[in-house]
Amino acid sequence: MPTVTALTRTTLLDGTGADPVPDATVLIEDGRIAAAGPSASVEVPADAEVRDLSGTWVIPGLMDANIHLVSARTPDTLLEFEGRYDELALEAAEIALKYGLTTVFDTWGPAAPLLAAREKIDSGERVGARFFCAGNILGLEGPMSEDFFKTGLTFEPETKDRINAIWEVGCGTDLISMTVDQIGEAVGRYIDSTGVDFIKYAASDHRAEGFLLFSEAAQRRIVEVCHDKGLLVQAHTTTVESLRMEVQAGADLLQHPDITGPTPIPEALLEAIVDRQLPCMSLMVTERYLEWLDEHKPQQAAVRRVADRNNRAFVERGARVLNTTDAFAYGQRVKNHAGFRPGLLTDDVPDMPTQIGRGHFLWIQAAWERGMDPMEILRSSSAHIAEAYGKADRYGTVTPGKAADLVVLGADPLAAPESYRSIVAVLKDGVTIDRDALAQNLLLADDPGA
């Protein structure tokens, strides 16, 4: 079997921002890009497998800067799949890869099961999107808590504590009552004991109030510890002040900075974010979804409209915006649960943005609607994410030396956002993925394209 593959007669969009290359050849050797450019300038070895891709466009493998692979989000599913959360992560990673996401970043989940699932993907035992993870949002409790799902008096404390501990690993809400030095020590222990790839902490809470959780000194210490350990750090924020504190603390990425409650981002803070080109993982949603919220969920619509104002400002000012969905791989059982996002996960909600395998396409459409340059949309869904997470040396562009993560499209992605859905083929590390074999016999999720 040849180890060299030549993809020929395609139009190449390499993710660097360079102009499209018509009649291009991409040469893949041992899972990496050996050459990419005009066919006349790429020498194809005699023993290469040649694939004629006439009428197609080749782009870098797509990425999502913020998803959640473990889809057990309700008390019944958390209990049923206890000890098997890695299986849920694997099926979500399959769905992601099937729809062109070759690399994703999990920003909240149980670290040990996620790392177990990743080992199966990295070893070749299972097929799925490559992923990097943070584990818990430091300062928040696990999924059976007021921070995520109000279980009331249904479960005894020991049961809730057992499930939550799988997420928290010693860095739940206990952190917020510690001294700055104690917080730093706890974060260091968390990093050492879990082996996570980056850190996400809660600058504000995950409830309706948006209370600040950590002082500025505590946030700076969290960032210092992460940087000393060689990890990038981001924060969950929901208010203008929590966002300002995250920026002042020196966070490397801004998690959903567009969500600032009823108050738009002040000019001085917006200018600082843009000038420093801090990566903005913005939860952009389509106009159709906003209009639905206006009619059916006016309170949530008000917050989303402010977020939309922030996102339009990011686009107009040239901020570094990343494709971000906050998606998970949910199915009918989660949709049926009256206590989980009531009225939002039903099938009649148009353009629901939080489903793995579908959300990244809707984000692209939303970015298009907000006037983002089509080439910048492509880069915000690939190269910019790799750069933001410190992975640009290996992923994000179709350039020599990078992993051969590619999506082959049947339509021009610079012409219309719908083109991203016209997937002809997905390659990860140079291997063409059998998309029809993915997302079969799902445990909890639905295949969004089925």
TrEMBL record:
Residues 57-430 form the Amidohydrolase-related domain. Gene3D superfamilies: Metal-dependent hydrolases, Urease, subunit C, domain 1. InterPro entries: Amidohydro-rel, Metal-dep_hydrolase_composite, Metal_Hydrolase, Metallo-dep_Hydrolase. It holds the Pfam family Amidohydro_1. SUPFAM superfamilies: Composite domain of metallo-dependent hydrolases, Metallo-dependent hydrolases. It comes from the Bacteria. This is Amidohydrolase family protein. It comes from Georgenia alba.
